[in-house]
């Protein structure tokens, strides 16, 4: 098992206002250099989450950020208010306005500048903790959405979430996912992620957190050179749960000669 406490921090899977069973299986399919998923935001709901998950998170010796998703502004705000009323030791929130695999999963906020700014402002009123808005790649100008989130008061933005994709079983002649479409993640999307991170970096003054296909120390360095202040690792943890710790060690060998003091 991975020693989570060695990592700089963790961001949880999404929690919503009410419990969600998620999409029916099959909801994960392997692809070349990546993975398609259509989980459907399966989670306990925030009230049960506070009782069963928060105590576990409080025991971790690393920074914890809770991801929140919703289908309407009220869902986000009520979830936030309930989490804020607990004795959680988490340091912040990442707001998922970009999940492409659930019909009512918040995508309308992630593609609309006005709604992004409005939601960010309302959430900002409800917490003094670190606030990160997670952005969708399936937009015309992701930098405009980032600027809207910045105007709304977010501390940082993270990008990118998964890219809409599809896989077909040629034997059954049917999609490999029950929902037909899913979110593509893993190394296959790294070039897309790098381009979007760089676009955002040039458009805003707040930190950008890079996400998308990180598997090696070289990948991390690319994201940093593209403008990311931090990075997240997701899909490749399935293949190697110790990847975060291994990358930290490898990066410590790279950065000192190049003038960077902390990782």
TrEMBL record:
**Which pathway does UniProt place it in?**
Pyrimidine metabolism; UMP biosynthesis via de novo pathway
Localization recorded for this chain is: Cytoplasm
Which CDD domains would you find in this protein's record? DHOD_1B_like
The record's section on Gene3D superfamilies has: Aldolase class I (3.20.20.70)
Where is each Dihydroorotate dehydrogenase catalytic domain found? 3-253
The answer to whether keyword Flavoprotein applies is yes
- BP GO annotations: 'de novo' pyrimidine nucleobase biosynthetic process; 'de novo' UMP biosynthetic process
Q: Which cofactor does it need?
A: FMN
**Gene Ontology MF annotations:** dihydroorotate dehydrogenase activity
Q: Which GO terms describe its cellular component?
A: cytoplasm
Q: Which HAMAP family match?
A: DHO_dh_type1 (MF_00224)
Spell out the family assignment given in the record's similarity comment: Belongs to the dihydroorotate dehydrogenase family. Type 1 subfamily.
Protein name per Swiss-Prot or TrEMBL: Dihydroorotate dehydrogenase catalytic domain-containing protein
């Amino acid at each position: 098992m991975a020693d989570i406490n060695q990592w700089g921090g963790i961001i949880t899977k999404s929690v919503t206002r009410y419990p969600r069973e998620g999409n029916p299986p099959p909801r994960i399919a392997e692809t070349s250099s990546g993975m398609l998923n259509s989980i459907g935001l399966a989670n306990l709901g925030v009230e049960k989450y506070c009782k069963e998950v928060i105590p576990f998170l409080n025991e971790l010796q690393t920074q914890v950020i809770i991801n929140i998703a919703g289908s309407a502004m009220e869902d986000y705000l009520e979830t936030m208010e309930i989490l804020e009323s607990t004795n959680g030791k988490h340091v912040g929130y990442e707001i998922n306005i970009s999940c492409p695999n659930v019909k009512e999963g918040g995508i309308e906020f992630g593609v609309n500048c006005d709604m992004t700014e409005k939601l960010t402002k309302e959430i900002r009123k409800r917490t003094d903790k670190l606030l990160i808005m997670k952005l969708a790649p399936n937009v015309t100008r992701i930098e405009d959405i980032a600027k809207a989130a910045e105007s709304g008061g977010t501390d940082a933005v993270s990008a990118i979430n998964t890219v809409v994709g599809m896989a077909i079983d040629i034997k059954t002649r049917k999609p490999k996912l029950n929902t037909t479409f899913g979110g593509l993640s893993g190394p296959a999307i790294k070039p897309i992620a790098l381009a979007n991170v760089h676009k955002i970096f040039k458009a805003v003054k707040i930190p950008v957190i890079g996400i998308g296909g990180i598997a090696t120390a070289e990948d991390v360095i690319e994201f940093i050179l593209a403008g990311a202040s931090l990075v997240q690792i997701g899909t490749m943890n399935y293949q190697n749960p110790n990847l975060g710790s291994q990358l930290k060690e490898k990066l410590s060998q790279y950065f000192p000669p190049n003038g960077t003091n902390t990782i």
